[in-house]
Amino acid sequence: MNSKKMRSGFCxxxxxxxxxxxAPAVPAKTNELDALRQTSKAFSAVAKDAVPAVVFxxxxxxxxxxxxxxxxxxxxxxxxxxxxxxxxxxxxxxDRMPQQPREYRQSGQGSGFIISEDGxxxxxxxxxxxxxxxxxxxxxxxxxxxxxxxxxxKTDVAVIKIEGENLPTLPLGDSDHLxxxxxxxAIGNPFGLAETLTFGIVSAKGRSTVGIADYEDFIQTxxxxxxxxxxxxxxxxxxxxxxxxxxxxxxxxxxxxxGFAIPINMAKHIKDQLVKEGKVTRGQLGVSxxxxxxxxxxxxxLDSTRGVVVNEVVEGSPAQKAGLEAxxxxxxxxxxxxxxxxxxxxxxxxxxxxxxxxxxxNRQGKEKTLPVKIGELSADSSRSxxxxxxxxxxGLTVQNITEDMxxxxxxRQAQGVIVSSVTPDSEAFRKGIRPGTIILSxxxxxxxxxxxxxxxxxxxxxxxxxxxxxxxxxxxxxxxLSLE
Length: 484
Prior knowledge:
Radius of gyration: 28 Å
Number of domains: 4
Distance between the termini: 91 Å
Largest sheet: 7 strands, antiparallel
Number of strands: 28
CATH class of the largest domain: Mainly Beta
Mean pLDDT: 79
Shape: globular
Helix content: 10-25%
């Protein structure tokens, strides 16, 4: 290369470097703000598509004089119209109680969302379950009278229907593929403020010991949920519903960043049955089970606490016919790991009666696969062995005592209920109540079933304390617990 060309190339290089050095640099702050703007626009786009399908639900019921719990009263168990709020919410009423009429109308409110163009709406049982009149107001201002298609108290899912044209809908997602830490948006009508949005993340999955419903598999989120959000959708960033907002954990009635939503996969299963049959049919095994603790796992020679222990097998049940025995540890159902008692219970309940499953169990250190034909859970068996009823206000769960249990614990008659689980940080646990404890009476009123237990507990909410007579290894004592 000659010297003239070298000088020319050098001059071009100097010029290029000069131009580059004079060009303004893009500030890092600008890039960060652009990223935030894009995130903000993403949330706005999801909300724009989702909000039109979310509806305001108003309900009314005729109440006889003397049966109403006054607003603000703690007596939630004696409230015949308790579906206007849930156990964590204050009830909201639009009508004041007249002085002394024979009957009056009581009203409440909640949320819901349209899932089909022909007007089917998902909401909560505690919002619409006992209403005489259900009305729905849509985003565009239209008002409809809604028909109750069906409710399921055990999961707190309800389906209602309106007749209208050009109804917007929300697509249903897959809650099984939801990950902890994902962004989610809660939409509803908190405190009657229509079309309110809050956002947060999925804090946890599979919460099954909350004490809100019989069958629990809740999504926990820190997206703010408040009274009136019940029945509204929890959606992901794809605009799909992944849960139905149901309750909050709060001592004040306001959001503290712990909200619970029913997984949409569970709700879809319930919805399909309600629309098709008007009722929900559940499967059952006929066993009493408990979670596998570390000491029990060590005793059985297991290297983890995954799985559940069979405490008792009901005579003539599908479990007995399949060869399941007390002391077996259920590890898998159809090659799916059994993580907890709640998960197994939900799995079996969601199965069609007559379905045969493969159950992997550990029996005295050896694994064995049993084919089990799922039975049908009848109304009479819903309070029998294996059906525990949560008493969240006491921090414990109880179930009925069978004849076999009576003989085992040396009871002279079928008396009391048995504690099947206790929350570790509860007052009940601190005062020595453990699984296996027999509760004989509440406030010196003998009890012989879960239903009598719940009734007696409901009659105690005004005083905020209950006197329990309990029996442990033949020793009887009294314990006073506060209603939390």
